[in-house]
Input
Amino acid sequence: MVKHFPLRRRWWRRPSQWARAVDGIDLDLPERDCLALVGESGCGKSTAARCILRLIEPDRGSICFDGTELRALGPRALRRERREMQMVFQDAGGSLDPRLSVEAIIAEPLEIHRLGTKAERRERVRALAAMVGLAAPLLARYPQELSGGQRQRVGIARALALRPKLVIADEPVSALDVSVQAQVLQLLLQLQRDHGLTYLVIAHDLGVVQRIADRIVVMYLGRIVERAPAAELFSAALHPYTQALLAAVPQADPRGREQRRRSRARTGGELPSAAAPPLGCAYHPRCPRAEARCRIETPQLQQLRPGHWVACHFPGE
Output
């Protein structure tokens, strides 16, 4: 899948520059699995998620869901298919209409798809609120009257209203306090067990997805640099960028003192611009073990262990 955005565009000319937000990625997501898409802000994770749902149109590539090619669907057919795919947005407050009550927000998907009578929709909303841990009195409130964790639970309830098969959660806990993050992650796990959900979770922090992900895909500057089962990636990451992300994950000090961080090499510098990615390996300007080959030759994804793929000329060194 590819998605480039035009830059420096004038109406009478073709764009002179493009931001390569998603620069050729392949994802597969088995039913009832949880795939985490991880990387720094600006690496293309959220753009990829929105392309999968066709909230924005990809430039090239195929999007196949449950045997249906989504890019071949017209507006009406896509609307029917979207009942099976829902999204929990990163900005819980910004994604909720401040003019609607919590009850109206959760009921909105049911009304759009004309499901059930008014009484049946109200009963479904109350069941959804209970499912995500929202007390009944909160249904009469408005988003601005709720805490961050409560707003995120409203977003999750709305996403589950149509009983979807796939839920895409874009940074579902990034704006929440640590204690609330644990509650929301536990809720997502419980809902997956109870309802057989399939998750695609977008995150920039590997520590967040450690408890919930079955497999992890690491993106850097629009491309996949490593993908592996979660347990293997945490125990034996091969790409230096993944190792740097792991180095940033806090770990509790066994002596009961303040948190410490993994003693691995960390990445330096800033993420390059997607409009002018470096030649060769895009990570080489920040990589502590880059060599001359890395500056001129783009590494391709290769499988080094069963299910463990990496795009690096010197993996694991």
In short: The first helix runs from residue 45 to 52.
